[in-house]
Write a structure and sequence with these properties.
about 250 residues; alpha/beta; seven-stranded mixed beta sheet
Length: about 250
């Protein structure tokens, strides 16, 4: 069409510029953490559903993960820690839209009512559930066998949040992530503020997913923190936790 200006590329470049500026706004970032911590005192992450099922994540993390999945179109998503099931069904619904792919959800305790919700959901055909510890050798071997059959594998770690456990998960599952795909380390926000009094946990500042992630990244050059996805996130439970695999 004469005179038509296709500005899609320019728009995407502007978004990256805006994200960089957002990440560098130190005043806003400080206020963000104060606001987010206060929101967490009201169980902010617990307030959301995906297709009728609780998804214990922030809206910002849900949206960014959707963007990543749509961009990279993984054939297999491995998630450790499935809670009430909203997250595995979220990934499965995106794969259903894409037209291919499976989700493997691993949890040490898949309660009967949560299993029932997942297995009777319209997109359950794309979900495989495994009960047991995500770092148990037999489970890692089972999942690796599935991953070896796929060219595009994504991993999301969201179970026990102690440094020791997450580091063991990273050592087991990060090698399964294929080039161009993402490794998401959830709940790195634990390192950014004091624990909430009403939520006693075995993890906290200095012992959490972020400390494990930082330690693991010192041992490999396969991953980099994706600037765009990490820069634009505020009100996130996983700051700096979106890692792109850059080497086979």
């Amino acid at each position: 069409m004469a005179g038509y200006n296709d500005d899609r590329k320019e728009f995407e470049e502007q978004k990256r510029k805006f994200a960089r500026e957002l990440a560098r706004d130190t005043k806003l970032q400080k206020e963000n953490w104060q606001f987010y911590r206060q929101a967490c005192s009201h169980n902010y992450e617990y307030l959301w559903n995906w297709m009728g099922v609780p998804i214990i994540q922030t809206p910002a993390d849900i949206m960014v993960t959707q963007e990543i999945i749509w961009e990279t179109k993984p054939q297999l998503i491995i998630e450790t820690g499935i809670a009430r099931g909203g997250s595995v069904l979220f990934y499965a619904s995106l794969m259903e839209t894409i037209g291919e792919g499976r989700v493997v959800g691993i949890d040490i305790d898949i309660r009967a009512h949560n299993r029932d919700t997942i297995e009777n959901h319209p997109v359950s055909k794309r979900v495989d559930l495994i009960q047991g510890s995500s770092i148990d050798d037999s489970i890692v071997t089972q999942v690796r066998t599935m991953a070896d059959k796929c060219e595009k594998v994504m991993v999301i770690l969201d179970s026990n949040h102690t440094h020791e456990h997450v580091l063991a998960e990273l050592e087991a599952y990060a090698p399964m992530v294929t080039k161009g795909q993402f490794l998401i380390v959830a709940d790195t926000s634990v390192d950014f503020f004091e624990p909430l009094d009403d939520r006693p946990r075995p993890w906290g500042q200095g012992d959490n997913p972020k400390t494990a992630m930082d330690s693991y990244l010192k041992t490999t050059d396969r991953f980099e923190r994706d600037a765009f996805y990490n820069d634009k996130l505020i009100m996130t439970s996983s700051p700096e936790g979106y890692l792109r695999c850059i080497k086979a």
